[in-house]
Specification:
Layout: H1 4-26, H2 36-44, E1 55-58, E2 61-65, E3 72-75, E4 81-91, E5 97-106, E6 112-118, H3 124-140, H4 144-160, E7 176-178, E8 187-189, E9 195-197, E10 206-211, E11 216-227, E12 234-243, E13 259-263, E14 268-271, E15 274-277, E16 286-291, E17 294-310, E18 313-317, E19 321-324, E20 327-330
Length: 332
């Protein structure tokens, strides 16, 4: 399965990109033919400020941010923020539509990788170059292929559904961020004290929640189970905690094993200093745990990767928090 997954993304992205390009060009009055040489030149173009430069004229091309959208932002569980900027490409000489330019940015290294998606009239060699980039560049950069495939698929879906160009209230386009959470077998505490795997929780279920102001437990109704298939199998991290009254001078001498909360690094948990992403919680910090209908403070004694990956899920609740693996976590 691990060997076939990259090829699945590769084939899916190639098919969707081709179809998407045809749909875009079908709406263009003056389509042009992108050559392989032009594709190479486009990949070499430098944009001074990707966040602010939505219109660029350089090297015989005009770049215009597609539908004036901000970058797509992906917060992966390895703590690295990845972005994709999407531009329409025109010939500066005759303003003919040549295709699309997708620029991928690794938030840790700030390294950029450009993908030139020819229009439907693009030369076969230009398409060959795009497919080669997806395969060989995508294989070397974890997280790139699912992000690129998702962006193109989503834009195509919006185009076909007539949603391209729509704005949020107030006229500003919504900034997209995709966050991922808990593995399917993570146990959610129910209001009656029982538990259920998060993948089995349904809208209307009543789960346990915590009122920090009243320092009391109560039930809260689930309004949605959120699944995140675009993440594929996300890498999980964890925090290991022990009750504050069980701490000893040596963690090795603890009377009870540390309790693990496992999720993606960006899921928020409730600490005594407020809301904090799981991956930002440090050793020594205090979190709220729930057991046998009572809450208590637990100190973090270890953090780090759990070495596991899984499809991931999260809940939306009426009170904005719930209990997973005995620890109070927050809606996103």
């Amino acid at each position: 399965m691990k060997r076939t997954l990259p090829y699945f993304f590769f084939l899916a992205a190639a098919f969707v990109a081709s179809f998407f390009a045809q749909r875009v060009m079908a709406q263009t009055a003056t389509p042009g033919t992108l050559t392989a040489e032009q594709a190479t030149a486009l990949k070499a173009l430098k944009i001074n400020n990707l966040e602010k430069d939505t219109y660029v004229k350089s090297g015989g091309f005009i770049l215009e941010r597609y539908e004036d959208r901000p970058a797509y932002v992906f917060n992966y569980s390895d703590g690295i923020k990845r972005k994709i900027y999407l531009y329409k490409v025109y010939s500066a000489a005759d303003t003919k539509d040549l295709g699309l330019l997708a620029i991928y940015q690794n938030g840790k290294t700030n390294e950029l990788k450009s993908f030139v998606i020819p229009g439907a009239a693009g030369e076969p060699k230009a398409w060959d170059a795009y497919l080669d980039d997806m395969k060989y560049v995508g294989e070397k950069e974890p997280g790139l292929m699912p992000a690129l495939a998702f962006v193109i698929s989503r834009e195509m879906a919006m185009l076909m559904g007539g949603g391209a160009g729509k704005t949020e209230e107030g006229g500003a386009k919504k900034k997209e961020e995709y966050n991922f959470c808990f593995g399917p077998q993570s146990l959610v505490t129910l209001a009656d004290g029982g538990s259920k795997a998060i993948v089995d929780v349904r809208e209307g279920d009543v789960v346990m929640s915590y009122d920090a102001a009243k320092q009391a437990l109560s039930g809260t109704r689930v309004t949605a189970l959120n699944t995140h298939p675009m993440a594929g199998e996300a890498t999980l991290v964890g925090i290991w905690t022990v009750p504050t009254n069980q701490l000893t001078a040596s963690v090795a001498l603890m009377p009870a094993p540390a309790q693990l909360l496992e999720a993606t690094a960006n899921h928020p948990v409730l600490t005594t200093t407020g809301r904090k992403a799981l991956g930002e919680v440090a050793v020594g910090e205090l979190v709220y745990r729930c057991e046998n209908g009572a809450t208590y403070l637990a100190r973090v004694v270890r953090t780090g990767s759990t070495g596991r990956a899984a499809m991931v899920y999260s809940l939306t609740t009426e009170k904005g928090n719930y209990v997973v693996a005995g620890t109070v976590v927050l809606d996103k």
